[in-house]
Amino acid sequence: MMVAGVGMVPFTTPSKSEPYDVMASGAIRAALADAGIEFSQVQQAYAGYVYGDSTSGQKALYGVGRTGIPVINVNNNCSTGSSALWLARQAVASGAADCVLALGFEQMQRGALADKWEDRPSPFVDFMAVAHQARGESEAPFAAQLFGGAGAEYAEKHGTAPETFARIAVKARQHAAHNPYAVFRDPVAVEEVLASPTIYGPLTRLQCCPPTCGAAAAVITSEEFARKHGLRSDVAIAAQALTTDTPVSFEGGMPALVGYDMAKAAADQVYAAASVDPRDIRVVELHDCFTANELLSYEALGLTEEGTAEKFVMDGDNTYGGRVVTNPSGGLLSKGHPLGATGLAQCAELTWQLRGQAEARQVEDVTLALQHNIGLGGAAVVTLYEKVS
What would you measure as the largest C-alpha separation in the chain, in angstroms? Predict the structure, then answer.
């Protein structure tokens, strides 16, 4: 399956956002132009978003054209964009379609994530019960309790210093400085990160991703379709896996509760399917909704051995000049995290990296690129892209 085209709009804060359908139309047009096709050639579309009314995907697509194709709305929490991508790839792989659009968008509101429906069970009831038993109850936002609790448990087990978590936020800003699509591009120092208000556990405000608005899209085609229509076929999806929670999520401690084992299972499936060693990967876009999750993800994805994430950070192996550049885009922490768009923005960044189009963010000698997108509740999507000569 080829990634024939990608596109996105600059991410922004809720106070500066355009309506979701305007942002989505911009991302779709960019992806179509990048692929060199017309919307009339798209045979299916998967539209991902979390905060919006039903059929918002149709509203977003109708701004580009009303061609009568199937439009499927996707919601898988923070992994929504990658879940739309997974469905698009699956449609092409199955032979059901030859040219499919994966779209993600979000027009978020200010403030921390919260349940929208108070008259029915929350999907996070079981998660919070485990968290409260492990760490006690708190008034902090629920996502910060979960990821911050996981970071605290990891730090207690391995003796990780607060400065280690803070360095991840500093690195995110350094990378985002070269990304015109990123929300936060100004540098921060470790001392500034640590001095920002404490949210939960090791997390301070500058270690938490902001509410963000934006859109991104990708055109996925078969190799035959790309060849027939003269489309570029230099980036392919080599392997992809989507996993959900197992009993281990609720029995394996706080890291398991926030998806460590889901991510590891998905990554292991991808590495096995593609016959790839994670040590061969030079660039990764991973789910850094909080600094704690980036640190955990280093180990879940096999980028470094269990218990060695602090050394991985302190040695600079997570950035340029190190072993693997993590989140060259600035990641969720600095590029921003519009839930539905995140996975497809990751796809765009890695496609640009493999093409050699990432400009000042370009990582040298990229032939493989890994994407990791996770949603509480839960779903983990891991995608491996390869450069096709």
Answer: 59
3-class state of residue 141 by DSSP: coil
DSSP assignment of 106-126 equals E-PPSS----S-SSS--TTHH
Active site residue 78: yes
Q: Amino acid letter at 90? A: Q
Tokens found for residue 216? 């991104």
Supply the DSSP string of 71-110, one letter for each residue. EEEE-BTBTHHHHHHHHHHHHHHHTS-SEEEEEEEE-PPS
For the chain, residues with pLDDT lower than 70 are 113
Angle among Cα 323, 235, 275 to the nearest 5 degrees reads: 60
Q: Count CA atoms within 13 Å of residue 337 on its CB side.
A: 27
Name the nearest CA neighbour of 216 among 352, 38, 14: 352
Please report, as a single letter, which amino acid is at residue 292: A
Q: For residue range 170-221, what is the model confidence (pLDDT) as tens digits?
A: 999 999 999 999 999 999 999 999 999 999 999 999 999 999 999 999 999 9
Q: Do residues 49 and 217 lie in contact, with contact meaning Cβ atoms separated by under 8 Å?
A: no
What is the helix (H) or strand (E) element at residue 238, kind and residue range? Answer: strand 235-243
Size of the chain, expressed as the number of residues it contains: 389
- DSSP 8-state secondary structure symbol assigned to residue 280: G
| For residue 322, cis peptide bond before it (omega within 30 degrees of 0) | no
Please say whether the beta carbons of 4 and 219 come within 8 A: yes
The CA-CA-CA angle for residues 226, 87, 93, to 5°, reads: 45
123 vs 116, 129, 171, 377, CA distance in Å? 11, 12, 33, 6
The single residue of 78, 208, 209, 213 carrying the catalytic annotation is 78
- Strands 71-74, 2-8: pairing is unpaired
Give one word for 43, left, alpha or beta, with left for phi > 0 and alpha for psi -120 to 50.
Answer: alpha
pLDDT at 263: 98
